[in-house]
Design goal:
The protein contains one helix and 18 strands. Helix content is 3%, strand content 35%. The protein has one helix spanning 9-15, and strands at 24-27, 35-40, 46-51, 58-60, 73-79, 85-90, 97-99, 115-121, 127-132, 143-146, 154-159, 166-171, 178-181, 191-199, 207-214, 225-226, 232-233, 237-238. The strands form six sheets. A four-stranded antiparallel beta sheet has the order 13-14-15-18, with no helix packed on it. A three-stranded antiparallel beta sheet has the order 1-2-3, with no helix packed on it. The termini are far apart.
Length: 257
């Protein structure tokens, strides 16, 4: 069976929930000191809280000093509520230099020599002379008098469009463009086959003989370069035009195993 709760003083206190009214200021805050406020429950219980200080409300006053490029200034302010006054130092502005319209005494730079420039402050009109770098050459079209080959650099000149100075120029050598000529078939097992290589660049007569080995034999090893892994590699030997490829007696490398 459930029993009904019994009303009484102890029961009322146990179930009472505070219901506070609105906050009321009991002490107004000032610019520098806190205030307070409170609210009351219908049962008479009170709660109290502090109110933050309002802080000064400064207004700038006459009598200050504006800073210049080289001298510090000062700002004067006064609180509109309590009359407190404060002074704030202002840093110098420093000069704001730009190129002056008056370049009397300046030296114009050229392609190879630095010059000078007159600059003027936009506020106080103070002037100073500063160094400016050389302008550098503006090179025109390259004119080649000697073309590059496989082994020799190209040679030529170009001229500055400003001062007309002429300068010698070079371009790197082309390097050989070695291409296989003729038979590309694999040699027989245990044999080495001679292959002919020549440079593809026009006018170059550089020629190479190469050997391609298949299952290198002991005999063929005498004429081949063997890599660290034991496998045969191409053996390129420059022979130029000294070796007549049609006459094996002039070039022992043509004598296959």
């Amino acid at each position: 069976m459930s029993s009904e709760p019994v009303d009484g003083p102890e029961s009322s206190q146990a179930t009472h929930r505070h219901s506070y009214g609105e906050w009321k200021v009991t002490k107004e805050p000032t610019c520098t000191e806190k205030g307070s406020k409170e609210r009351t429950c219908e049962c008479g219980d009170k709660q109290t809280q502090s109110v933050s200080a309002a802080g000064h409300k400064y207004v700038e006053q006459e009598g200050g000093k504006l800073p210049t490029c080289t001298e510090a200034g000062e700002k004067i302010e006064k609180c509109s509520v309590c009359g407190d006054e404060k002074k704030t130092p202002l840093d110098p502005l420093d000069h704001d230099y730009i190129k002056s319209n008056d370049q009397d005494g300046a030296v114009l730079p050229d392609c190879e020599n630095p010059g000078t420039e007159i600059q003027e402050c936009t506020r106080c009109h103070d002037k100073k002379t500063v160094d400016v770098p050389e302008t550098g050459h503006t090179w025109g079209e390259d004119h080649w008098t000697k073309n590059a080959t496989c082994t020799d650099e190209a040679e030529g000149t170009h001229k500055c469009e400003t001062c007309s100075k002429e300068e010698a120029i070079t371009s790197p050598a082309l390097g050989h463009d070695i291409q296989l000529i003729g038979d590309e078939t694999e040699p027989e097992p245990g044999k080495a086959k001679v292959r002919l290589y020549t440079c593809a660049h026009e006018g170059c007569e550089q020629t190479y003989l190469g050997f391609k080995a298949n299952e290198v034999s002991e005999e063929s090893k005498k004429k081949l370069v063997i890599g660290e892994d034991g496998g045969a590699r191409f053996f390129g030997q420059p022979i130029g035009n000294k070796c007549d490829l049609k006459d094996s007696s002039t070039c022992p490398h043509l004598q296959q195993t």
